[in-house]
Amino acid sequence: MKYKYGSRRRAVEYEKDFDTWNEAKKTVHKRDILPDFETRDIWWCKMGLNVGFEEDGKGTEFERPVLVFRKFNKEMLLGIPLTSVAKKNKFHFELPKYREDGADSLAILSQIRLYSANRLVRKIYRIGENTHDNLTKKLFKLMAEKANAPHAAEHSRIPNGSSYRQYSKPKAKRQVSKLKKEAK
User: Fold this and answer.
1) H/E run at residue 135
2) H/E/C letters for each residue in 46-61?
């Protein structure tokens, strides 16, 4: 399947090699020894190839840095993938510089997900408590936003293909007002 990324003007097509990743995933799954990781750690993680716009691993090893946002137990963690592409928006959180090359590193908050510790390859760094607290605040603020915000409603669909917008409160209020007028 071909995927496109980039701006509307300059979309680039590429094909994901799921077969190669599926073979590599078998090795990741069979891993016997789990790494010792903690909340606030940044690890190289075997992200693999994912569906649609979910963040993929990079290179032949399908790896990407991931921040351990929360350790649930020795086998499971809630992680946030990192990127070096600088974006100043509500979906990204800039981390302090830790890379040897001095490049920026941002947590992609919209890509938070559950990971198996089997995917963790090697530890890179540990962020400070204050940075983790600030990231947590920004993430919780993002999660607390109303799902029916105008930008979300315009693109959201329900299973029958209709837009959620037709079920919005203003329309329902207009319908109630209309029914009341007809009842008089």
Assistant:
1) helix 129-144
2) ECCCCCCCCCCCECCC
Contacts of 55 (CB under 8 A, 6+ apart): 47, 64, 81, 83, 108, 111
Looking at 3.40.50.620, 3.50.30.20, 2.30.30.110, 3.30.70.100, the CATH number of the domain 33-145 comes to 2.30.30.110
Which pLDDT band, with edges at 50, 70 and 90, does 79 fall under?
very high
Asked if residue 44 lies in contact with residue 124, where contact means CB atoms within 8 angstroms, the answer is yes
Q: How far apart (Å, rounded) are the C-alpha atoms in residues 150 and 170?
A: 12
Tokens linked to 21: 């990743």
Q: Measured between alpha carbons, how far is 74 from 78 in angstroms, rounded to an integer?
A: 12
pTM for the predicted model, two decimal places: 0.67
Q: pLDDT per residue over 34-63, tens digit each? A: 889 999 999 988 877 565 665 666 667 668
Question: CATH 2.30.30.110 spans which residues of the chain?
Answer: 33-145
Q: Exposed/middle/buried for 123, CB within 10 Å: 0-12, 13-18, 19+? A: middle
